[in-house]
Amino acid sequence: MKTTETPAKQLAAFIAKYDPAVARLARATRAALRKRLPTALELVYDNYQFLALGFGATERASDAIVSLAVSPKGVSICFIHGATLPDPGKILLGSGKQTRFVRLEGADTLAKPHVEALLRAALARAKTPLRETGRGITIIKSISAKQRPRRR
Predict the structure, then answer these.
(1) In this structure, is residue 151 part of a structural domain?
(2) Domain span at residue 84?
(3) How do residues 27-50 score in pLDDT, each as one tens digit?
């Protein structure tokens, strides 16, 4: 995957493939999550079905703590080990053995008490904790040659 474009420009192009409303939501929620997790590495996967932005302490996808999943229907925050997180607000969706998610109506959804509590719990349980200082970078990990349509 050789390119002269910066990761930021590549990511902007991936997001631009979506309907304007979904693209705005993706940019806003990404900015809010980057602000909340400033030292996290952001791993970008422009996959067949979703644009996935994983946030973790290392370049390994298995070390991601949360991710944003962007689809033509909207944006969700995925808690990679959500099945084991306390969820007193019963807001987690999904039935897999590991991952759970919350659909995001806007960037402000990330600041709602139940979502913030899930995020704190996920960070506390991270196998590899985020660095306390520094600034995370964006890393383009993969781009699928074949993709589902990004617009409805």
Answers:
(1) no
(2) 7-143
(3) 999 999 999 999 999 999 999 989
